[in-house]
User: Fold this.
Amino acid sequence: MTSTETSAAVQADRRRWFALAIVMTAAFMDLVDVTIVNIAIPSIQEEAGATFSQIQWITAGYALAFAAGLITGGRLGDIHGRKRLFLVGIGGFTLASALCGFAANPEMLVAARILQGAMAAMMVPQVLSIVHATFPAHERGKVFGLFGAIVGLGAVSGPLLGALLTEWDLFRLAWRPIFLINLPVGIAGLILGSRFITESKAPRALKLDLVGVALVTLGLLMLLYPLTRGRELGWPLWGYLSMAGALVVFGALVVYERRKGARDGSPLVELSLFRVKSFAAGIAVQTVFGVALGVFFLVWTLYMQVGLGWTPLRAGLTGVPFSIAVSTAAGLSVQKLVPRFGRGVLQAGALVMAAGVLIYIWEAHRYGLSIASWQMALPLVVMGVGMGLIVAPLTDAVLSEVPREHSGSASGLINTVQQMGNALGLGLVSVVFFGEIGDRLTAQQVGPAFVNAFQHALGWVAALMAGIFLLMFALPRRPAQHVEGGAEAPAAQAKEPELVP
Assistant:
């Protein structure tokens, strides 16, 4: 190899590692943004005058837009180029973050959060696709290991960063810096990404299914809007009709997707996948798990900061043992436990997480308003261990019996239904949490009312975890073993992409 060729190889190697750093930073920004908002919710409610239903939509609107756009975002990247869609996504995410930070009222904040979720759906699917296009197969294991570390770091740092930014009240902006911090990161990612990321496309990209996206979004809106607004409006008749109509819309989606699959082979939802028992059960597990997490994280924040009157910083620090437990257990489950014990690890995770929830209910009842952060450590660590045992190996378990040619569609659908479950869980907070709180409370009644409502909501979470345990019996006994004709691995979601100069 000549010196010129050596220099070119070194430069190409440096470019791909720069590209990796850029896309990982974008993924980290999205992960932090989800967790950072939860800790600032009470501050937003107080400073912006947001109602409880608006608070729900600040979180659920993001999850809904993210879920509805994930598969379409991935396909747009395949068709028009992953680099191009990544830059569109990160640019739009940065703009939406600015709109969130400068929102003049709660309605503008909700709209900006929905836009932010839609832009995240353009940006996030390109991350693994760009990694797949940029790194050879023998290096991807190391790269995906780095990605896992970034996920763990985002889970730990998001609540802490949100707590610090809210507590510091920078420039008297209260909660707004939690969104504005994305601006310099996003602008740097946009500039560096345009220079260092290599463009790539799929050789044979599927077509878009915008009608499918519209039906999914409409159905979820018809279900979620009455759930979040129904309590405040006295549960009017139109709310029940809307929720019943959502079932009709989802039925129409199934009919349309079946016809579209027969016509051009590119439906939003590949219905043939549901003939695989383990995949159908896995989708149910992902959805219910998303609902449980959506309920827990919002009511947990409100319980600590509104019910107990804690500062954002104290609430954020209280959650650190939970985040560490999740990251530690996730690493152990994939590397050590699942290869040896298979499906039993995931089922143990569901039972352990349910046990942690029950301990939390007992402690909340036992100590009431005088509960201390250190007393919460035990249930949070137990819950974190249970969650970690589930989240890391679940995708592989769900995909292990899916035919290889459908592994990309199946992976996208798994992520989508988890986000949809999360949005549904956030909507259900009106029923399982706010439904237990009176409309007109004195200052002395707020604390006890929120403590009681927190226990009631956690009872629902425990029941959902028990349901997940039962659903997991339909998963393969050895999800880490790749079945003949099944998906090789979650990373193998697409064929080798075609590089575009």
In short: The beta strands are 200-201, 498-499. The first strand starts at residue 200 and ends at 201.
